[in-house]
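Sample 1 of the test manifest.
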Amino acid sequence: MDKIRVAILGATGIVGQRLAALLAVHPWFTVVALCASAESAGLRYDEAVRARWRAPGEIPPSLAKTVVRPCLPDVEARLVFSALESGAAGPIEAAFAQEGYFVCSNAGDHRMSPNVPLLVPEANADHLALVQRQALGSGGIVANPNCSTAGLVLALAPLHRSFGVRQVFVATLQALSGAGYPGVPSLDIVGNAIPHIPGEEDKIETEPLKIMGDQTHLADFRISAQCHRVAAAEGHLLSIAVELAQRPTLEGLVSALSSFAPLRGLGLPTAPAFPLFVHPEPDRPQPLRDAGRGAGMTVTIGRVRPDRIFDYKFTALVNNLVRGAAGAAVLNAELAFRRGYLH
Amino acid sequence: MDKIRVAILGATGIVGQRLAALLAVHPWFTVVALCASAESAGLRYDEAVRARWRAPGEIPPSLAKTVVRPCLPDVEARLVFSALESGAAGPIEAAFAQEGYFVCSNAGDHRMSPNVPLLVPEANADHLALVQRQALGSGGIVANPNCSTAGLVLALAPLHRSFGVRQVFVATLQALSGAGYPGVPSLDIVGNAIPHIPGEEDKIETEPLKIMGDQTHLADFRISAQCHRVAAAEGHLLSIAVELAQRPTLEGLVSALSSFAPLRGLGLPTAPAFPLFVHPEPDRPQPLRDAGRGAGMTVTIGRVRPDRIFDYKFTALVNNLVRGAAGAAVLNAELAFRRGYLH
Amino acid sequence: MDKIRVAILGATGIVGQRLAALLAVHPWFTVVALCASAESAGLRYDEAVRARWRAPGEIPPSLAKTVVRPCLPDVEARLVFSALESGAAGPIEAAFAQEGYFVCSNAGDHRMSPNVPLLVPEANADHLALVQRQALGSGGIVANPNCSTAGLVLALAPLHRSFGVRQVFVATLQALSGAGYPGVPSLDIVGNAIPHIPGEEDKIETEPLKIMGDQTHLADFRISAQCHRVAAAEGHLLSIAVELAQRPTLEGLVSALSSFAPLRGLGLPTAPAFPLFVHPEPDRPQPLRDAGRGAGMTVTIGRVRPDRIFDYKFTALVNNLVRGAAGAAVLNAELAFRRGYLH
Amino acid sequence: MDKIRVAILGATGIVGQRLAALLAVHPWFTVVALCASAESAGLRYDEAVRARWRAPGEIPPSLAKTVVRPCLPDVEARLVFSALESGAAGPIEAAFAQEGYFVCSNAGDHRMSPNVPLLVPEANADHLALVQRQALGSGGIVANPNCSTAGLVLALAPLHRSFGVRQVFVATLQALSGAGYPGVPSLDIVGNAIPHIPGEEDKIETEPLKIMGDQTHLADFRISAQCHRVAAAEGHLLSIAVELAQRPTLEGLVSALSSFAPLRGLGLPTAPAFPLFVHPEPDRPQPLRDAGRGAGMTVTIGRVRPDRIFDYKFTALVNNLVRGAAGAAVLNAELAFRRGYLH
């Protein structure tokens, strides 16, 4: 088949770089445009990002010499990935969608708009249909959630399906890369931890209810989040306590997590066979050791045990840059393609 | 007055060093014996600890040349501070108490024994009377709690008194010094975080119920804890959500915390005027910036805000080596002295 | 005596904060003006720096409510400390000096100007006289060197005096605070080290030659520097190898270092009794443990041993924010006062 | 061809794990025995190392169930890799060699023995012939150097060959993994740097002279080393200044480094096409970004520039676990095989 032509908006930032790295080797998509702010526009991609390249490996050779363009909806592409910063992202993504581009966005601006699917394919693939209500013809916007939300939703999805989630406490220990680059000053975090990430708790407490609701109503459970920044590079830890409508056995709970495979058979290149891996060691997951599992798309879960207040508690690790950002957007696009939205 | 003669058991470890530093300048107590395991016994204190001194400042000159003794109950002291490791501590502390010494212990062994006061003077000073049931004449054992428990209890005590605590979720981010020395290998924690501290969650979930109960019954509320190790040096963060019997206003809650001063008037040298400080900045407390408040005896609280599931949530920082260990034992001894137990 | 009225330029940055902290408790000087860029001018000092206060302890209460002014030479002060960034500093400091202020600068702009004393009082107190050649009446500029230079010069000064320095290799491991705030992004340095600090090596290779020369000629020896950034908070390590004109014994070398006390008898408040401390332990100095020695004004030296190429090698630690910046400027002002330049 | 049967001594440590990971996928060698100390002997390999596995990826499935054996010379293998700790290694390796095994050792014990080749194939492949003087028939010992030495020798080898090395200053910033596991306590290194690694400087100052000498005489130049431990995980930085017999142009020097390829044509699987990579960016190499180059076998060099005392200075990064340990031993074995020593 001919590869689908794609553009990346915000291609020079830390998430945009990850998108570039993932898409440069993607079997279905081919990058034809790298777009960024006025500072970078006109430079070759390698010139623009050389001093701030933070993705693993080298700048993809196939993109290195591509001249960066401004974020204008005149690219010859069908599909657009947006790694723009929230705030700037909103109007630019809307402009692309109006012009008929299918936009897979990592930004926060449109996430809670009623007609924008806030999509985690393993959890709410059916929400993709919402995009039709945007009434933009071939255009449309699909959003992936906040990086911590992505991990939380994947951990809760099989539990909600099987046992009904009622209440959730979650405490996060979030990696530095979640704040972008330059992001957190080293003087603030070396030998330290910070119990505050602006805006993050509200996202974690609300986005999952949209994702895990039906297409028109929020899910009917409550989440309380406390967020912390720690000096890990990549991978957010989420320590979760959950109250369920029906209390399974510990084995039943672990089985629901580890057998969760709702995308099986779809053949989406970025989807791991099992999105959740339950680690048997007592001190896992850990950012340094588990963030790479499933090329960053697998959420690692550990320490599943009964809770004294709710039913069970456990810890999950989500790769914030892949499953929580760039990989999430790519998986959303793969689902859209498979469902016929990109023809 | 003549100073009270004291001994330190386990004087060479990280908590024992802090005890030595605190007691070397104490207005009521004078250190006459430094006891440790067979490896150190017979060495001068400075020889024994030089390569592993981790307390601030230098080895106290008044103690540097003291020859370390074995942990035998033949010291000419009235009061004994124990920084022994749990396991080893139990029988040694019992032997000292049997011989008539008053033992203030930081170890876990006797904490949950019914007749041993598990003491946080601001929270349960009356429990000190339990020591009489040990029926050891002038001897006895008083324990301070686990380092995280110490912070949790101080934060909850004024809330329980004023509003009644019903349920508590707490997630901890604990500093490296909590694991002793050599403790956590650097390869495990640089650029990482570990969601597991063996035995810690159980202590945090049970010790506060003894402290905040009356002298014979556990308090009737529930605690759920999730513990994490992070690459901070000193100071444990506790992010707490609390359900109360009576819901105060936010101002009422903050006022109960910041005005808490139950030891006022007792003149205990190690007690800060106010054991809790509510920090106004949105990103505090932080280990690096707040662990030293009140010479390590003040718990810093921040981010007090309503919770979506329970009533309120907030973050507390406790200096694990001072308020959570060495300073706690010293404060217990000061209370015991003031109440006439050391004559 | 009446205290001398002083102003701080660049009072909101990381060095300006240190100056504020040091000067708020200074026995000779009293801060009457805090000056900074347009963003901060008009704000109260505590409002301007609250979110970025990085000096130990709290914002000095005596300065917290002072309204920050622009950096204009209309302050009612005799003495001006400049913590401005190099580049901006040059013309502003010149304007103050023209108006008759005595300026003690931490910035790089005027350091190598022939008539500006580049002053380390223990090394070249006589250079202070150069200020008269500026022919500005009561005004003038005195500079302290780069933070690493300060440590290097202090270590070399007694050796040059006693044995004659011929050649010096120095490798530095520099702390994060040397880059200011926000400074080094955490993603660049957690779990990493960077062998490059722009412009630093050239300063270390040239500034000492001016300081250790006479008032008109550079010293006649050669320095080669290699600089690295590491994830320590405060305190630059310098590993130094030195070739001397006359080779002393190891004992002679250590004695020259540890007995060095050229300011004895001057009664300068910020000068430690001995500016160099030779640490006996084999693994010292270390930033975390030795940066506070002598309130940050003492350079700690360790590992003095023979070298296979030059004569000796050793490691020095200089507190980059105190001895290498704020404290250096204050000590220069104290010397100027003692020598009658501030009347 | 049939794969050569190999054993690993010290298979459970941090270098032994790397050997296991490298050899599990090696095209010429097949691991038939994993040997370790008495604590591990009798356990399955995965049981023995699970809690301390620190190599990238998972425990090799092909080795996970292998039962660990004691380090006795009764394995059915031709080739033995030793990752034993220095001290223990000496007699064990000698016993294996006596019994006819060909031993490739990472330990320090035999490195400086006259008849033991201290081998870096790119630098002194001809030294391999020394093994014949051991007169052990099919048995023999070949050693690879200290991890920092490995990087230094690779950087110096092309310069020595082309221009003649006369004098070398080197300052190292060494990663945590160089100290093994558990190794450096986190309390000693988080937010810190340590200017001391016992025994290291002496190795760096002497081993290269054996490697770069002829088979019977040490090379006739001088090295001075200063070593530091920093909080990086993997990859030692070496900042090097070098005096040469003939001074090339900067371009000539860079060309000598980047074109160095003495093993070309030998087809050794672990040898990179070019063992040295000269990085063009001004702030490279860095442990976090460059340790993986060439699967850990390529030394990255940066900041090549003239020096004020010697001729040139530059910084090199060597992966201490691969090029400096496990990979070095494997490359030595490959050379031995190619040269016919393993038939």
